[in-house]
Amino acid sequence: MNYPIWEIPMLGGGMLIALVAIVHVFVSHFAIGGGFYLVLTERTARKTSNQALLDFAKAHSRFFILLVLVFGAVTGVGIWWTIALVNPTATSTLIHVFVWVWAIEWVFFIVELMAAVLYYYGWDRMDARTHMTIGWIYAVAAWCSLVLINGILTFMLTPGRWVETQSVLHGFFNPTMLPSMFLRTAVCVALAGLYALISGSLVKDQEAKGHIVKYSAKWVMAGVAVLPIFGFWYISQLPPMAREISMGGAPAVTLFATGSVIFSLLVVGGAFIGPYLFPKHVHVTYAFGLAVIGLLATGSTEWVREAVRKPFIIYDYMYSNTIRVSDFNDLSMTGLLAKARWEVPSAEERKSPVKLGRRVFRAQCMSCHTVNGFNGVRYLVKGWDREFLDHQILYLNKLKGYMPPFIGTDEERAGLVEYLLSLNDDSRAGSTVSEGGQ
Amino acid sequence: MPGLPLPDPAGLPAPIWLLKFLSVFTLTLHLLAMNLLVGGTILMAISLHRGKTDPVSQRLFERLARGLPVTMSLTITLGVAPLLFVQLIYGQAFYTSSVLMAWPWLMVIPLVMLAYYGLYACQFRPAWLGKYLHAIAWLSALLILVVGFLFSNNWTLMLAPRTWHALYNAGISGLHLNAGDSSLIPRYLHFMIGGLAVAGLGVLLLGRAVRKEDAEMAERMEQIGRRWFLMATGIQVIVGFWFLFALPQMVRRFFIGGNMVDSGVLAAGILLAFVAMAIVRRAPGVAALLTGSTVFLMVVARHRLRQILLTPALKINEQVVHPQWALLVLFVVLLLAGLAVVAWMVFAFVRAGRVRPDAPQGG
């Protein structure tokens, strides 16, 4: 509405965000758990004068900085880049409401980065005590940045009293903030173990390998074991509709939710059967395979978390299509296009319902829908006639709970119906292959 | 102009002058790091090339390769804050121009990542890369230059609200650049050549720092650094004027006498650069300080340019303010504490001696 739309062929914006976010989450949670893992491993190695373990920690720390400082940090900025492109209005809200929280997070980011670099370069340079202190500083700073981002992220699903008070503290300390913080911390622990299994399985010294792999498996199992406790707490705090969506209300979401549980069980089972029981025999491909399942578990969980927020992008405040709930009445009176800053129909477009409808589609639907790709409307409306389409759009939010209500005048609705019908009409399909190409 | 985005109804969380100050201040830090990165990577690739026949250049390559990944980290980290403030104050312009050039803008992320891994490869695995080392070093430099070009595109497109609707109506696939803008190329060159000047100065100072350890190398570094600094700053003055005259006349007016403050800031920046050039041989430390001040003054001039171009169209200064004082204070306190922790860590690291940690693993 306020900002131009970016048409992303095939994927659509939501899927693009998901792709960037899932890989980032998988690395960034490791960045946090891995910090604790490294410094605790170093402590054990020094206490027991175990040189092999110390060598492992050192080697693992190089893998760690190459993954965390480069991939983790850059994809983190990448998510910010992506959400700002796909959903500038919501991003702007998050920045405006939480700017000082972001700024504080930036302070921890600086500390975290410097600590990671100095920890790595300081292995043979600093005394053990100072080196480990820097390791602890890294781990704590990284965890603090998780706490801060978690507050903002959970705000989107459960803004709590913020919707009435607009108080940033109400927004930050929202109903799911704490359970999600514990959940994510547990995931960090599990991922630290999962990554260490890869490094550990490559250790040449059999004794050391056995010790490291088994120790890492315990991290995985401990992390996953507590997930159900915090998971139930988290779910209990969700808005009722979000719970319904994940438990059968929308089949795709339920499928992913089930996937998340199954993948998590596979990870914990896989960590027990291989690395825990037979640590010396774990091959790197096995460890890598477990990490891939871990990625699937993280990915499906994050996907569900995003999906259950529908029909909102910020619950009770802004719909998925970036229209604010408070603007609903106003827009219904004036019409959508009167307020859409980028979809200004020309005189010619005003005369053609299909072209007018295409403007409405861009302004109101394209945040979630593509034309031909993922969540493509062409397939969703296949076989629908005019009367059925109009009925669907008129009662959109009632018929499909995960969609926002249609907002606009009767003329705009009629236009949207005609536009969608034109997609449905095979004889005219050639002219509407690409939304942006017209 | 019809249909430009409205300011966010959430309002600003602090008075706008304070946000603008933070934006200018943090951007200066980011640009200094960015300059070291851009110029440093180019100098690294050149040193590597010369290192084929000259062992001192080879050692210079190794020294630069050791410092550049951290410089990249600093550039990214220090870039986060100004990007935060730009979205806060000028979101209406920033989000719009970014969406119009969405694909090229998004490409910044993979390009930075590739360049970053390239730099780490040059540091950690020069022997293993063998004959590809040269290609990787140059590729990293090229990628960083491309990223700079994309930034220049977005930062100039953002200043041109009159062009937005036409671009949007021409296509919504996010494939636009701002190639039609006559200030794009000089502005881009101005930023990149500044990188060579600042990095030259960095090499010069680094040379002085290693005088005791390695006199031969120190002398060469001082010589190379000084030469690059003088050459790049000299070219910079010419490109700077090109940039100035590529701006629309009504904008240029402000900087050439039309507004005393704007003209004073620009003139002072140029003057300090000349003084820095004159004294760099005798007092490189002071020259560095003056160059840092020039960068700051140029960031102020850049900020003023943005004000002139955006304020009337987007009513930037009329945004509502809902101050969050307590959080602002908390931020400042934590920032000071964070910087103290960083200072302690760096101190501990330096104090711990000068043994190269990764020499045995450097491969």
> What's the number of helices of chain A?
19
Q: Name the average pLDDT of chain B.
A: 94
Quote the beta fraction of chain A.
under 5%
Low-confidence stretches of chain B are 355-363
Question: Which structural class matches the secondary elements of chain B?
Answer: mainly alpha
**Mean pLDDT level of chain A:** 93
Give the overall form of chain A.
elongated
Structure characterization notes:
- The complex is a heterodimer of chains A (438) and B (363).
- Chain A is built from 19 helices and two strands.
- In chain A, a hairpin with a 3-residue loop joins strand 1 and strand 2.
- The longest helix of chain A is centred in the N-terminal third of the chain and has 36 residues.
- The radius of gyration of chain A is 25 Å and the shape is elongated.
- Chain A has a two-stranded antiparallel sheet.
- With 438 residues, chain A is mainly alpha-helical.
- Helix content of chain A is 72%, strand content 1%.
- In chain A, helix 1 packs antiparallel against helix 2, helix 1 packs across helix 12 and helix 8 packs antiparallel against helix 11.
- Chain B is mostly helical.
- Chain B contains twelve helices and no strands.
- Chains A and B meet through helix 2, helix 3 and helix 4 of A and helix 2, helix 3, helix 6 and helix 12 of B.
